[in-house]
Amino acid sequence: MTTILELDRLSKTFAGGVVAVDDVSLAIGAGEFVTLLGPSGCGKTTLLRMIAGFESPDAGRIVLGGREVTDDPPYRRPVNTVFQDYALFPHMSVAKNVGYGLRIAGAGRDEIRARVADALRMVDLSEKMDSLPGQLSGGQRQRVALARAIIRQPKVLLLDEPLSALDVKLREAMQVELKHLHQKLGITFVLVTHDQKEALVLSDRVVVLERGRIVQCGSPAELYDTPSTPYVADFIGTSNLLPATVSEVTGSDIVAACGPHSLRAPARGRRLVAGDKVLLSVRPERALLLADGMPPSAGANRLTARVTEHLFHGNSLRVGLDIGQAAPFIVDLQLQAALGSLSLPAPGSTVTVLVDPANVTVFPAAGA
Amino acid sequence: MKLAARRRLAVLGVLAPPLLWTLLFMFVPYAIMFAYSFFRKQFPVFIPDFQLGNYLLLLSDPQYYTVLLRTLKIALSVAALSLLLAYPLAYFLAFKLRSPRLRMVLYMAVIVPLWVSYLLRAYTWKTILGSQGVLNSFLVWSGVLAEPTDLLLYNQFSIVLTLTYIFIPFVVMPIYTALEKIPRNLIEASEDLGVTPVETFLRITLPLSVPGILAGVTFAFCLTFGDFVAPTLVGGPSGTMIASVIQSQFGTALNWPLGSALSIVVLVIVLAIISASDRLERTGRLNLG
């Protein structure tokens, strides 16, 4: 895969000393769908705006399609942006909005008409050609913004939280459409979002940012299954984080004590010795409750816990458990039958939690 | 009493004072003036009548329609000149100035002259432009002129200059407000689509600020059209404007019917301008969605 966009040691500090982007380097391949993920203030939007040319970095270079564009103004960069609140021109019809860039560039009337029609067909909005943005719904405006951004066939399409203003149903539908659009167009997409689910669903690669720095960069499955830090483990999906102390190291496994509990986990190449403080992470859906009469699988970690609450999610049940730690331990149970037909441990009862060692991730404790 | 009836009574109670005020001090005087415009003058009294003599006189006597045309020309000049000066200033305030504090200070600097007496501000220009004035003294001192010129004062130029100075805050304010309301990301979106800043201004910023331009230009035009202080102070004989003529008809000339007819003509012109600008602005606002 050829690199289309290269960010080379970019840094940006805003007036007042806020470090927005701190020494970020990233290479994005042609046709890739990359997501910049992080909470607000992590620098993801600033990074995107630097690629678009709305902010200039204090240090570093941006190379786009083999050409350095660090000091180029936005109107000379072969990228286009879908803005968070769409930024449609209110005094122009949908067709005028979409054809705006082509029209000013001096394209012929027939060419503009054909390409506008193409772009609108691509986002399934052909019938709204002559409407004004003010007459459209949020989802429709979103589509116009998309059509306007793809009509110039940019090298890279930048998307700044494009779906955050839509309601849940529409957002999920648009996620699918965005993914299909990416496959159809073959353009490189760079998406900024704070929604980890969106990042997992859409991306080929997710870049997790924290305070202006890249914390981890990898495929959605990599990030979910082998997070590099507790921050990533907690930000992507949900994790039970248990502070523990290593009690013994046996081969490639460790055993760590967490209160009265003892858990076995693979060290995954981390050099640990007995007495080290660690943080154990367990995904809620990777733990099981031991049903009555069920033989415990060999080698699984066992924790005795008291059920504190049930949270019904429709397709799953989130069970809150007290295992003697400050934070409750949560277990997600997939419900394959109606809740009423299942016999589940009621709040207050004592249960045994099973966790396969392979499903425990070990992090060195913060500050260690 | 039923709730609806009580509510209606309450609405009436709130609306009655302003309605009464408007009726007594706006509608009634206008009606009287309208009636007077059909009266006949027979020295020393005005005789109630219904005839179009006054209006016909306005149309036939060049003394009146030339002044009317001149007033129109001056009002248009003031509107155009103040737009030319106010737009860049408002644009600078709204877009180029990064510091909100400095923006506030400069905006106040535009507004503050409104707190000074209008008469005083017009009079100031007399002292600047007069033959013994600041400008002449400077030009003679610096050797540009051998002796003071009287070309600066008592003509249409001095009226346009003075009125532009006086009314410019009324043009800056609506344009600034209109520019301020334009979302910045529209400008970013335009540049993102490959459009240069100049073209972006022409295609996005300027069209979206049209409501402000219309409001400002209408202010400047209408205020100038009815002004009689500036022509009195800095106008001279070649700068007589319609309001001064009306004033003299009600004063020294003692011809109220003719003065009323003139007033009605001015009123109709100003109302036509205001409603045209209002209609234009409304179609613009519809476009904004």
User: What's the overall average pLDDT of chain B, rounded?
Assistant: 90
| SSE arrangement of chain A, N to C | EEEHEEEHHHEHEHEEHHEEEEEEEEEE
Strand order of the largest sheet of chain B: 1-2
Distance between the termini of chain A: 39 Å
Query: Could you give the order of strands across the largest sheet of chain A?
Result: 6-7-8-3-9-10
Shape of chain A: globular
**Residue share in helix of chain B:** over 70%
What integer value in Å does the Rg of chain B equal? 24 Å
Major sheet of chain A: 6 strands, mixed
3D shape of chain B: globular
- SSE string of chain B, helices as H and strands as E: HEEHHHHHHHHHHHH
Largest interface: pair, residues per side: A-B, 28 and 22 residues
Strand % of chain B is: under 5%
Radius of gyration of chain A: 25 Å
| Helix content bin of chain A | 10-25%
Overall pLDDT of chain A = 91
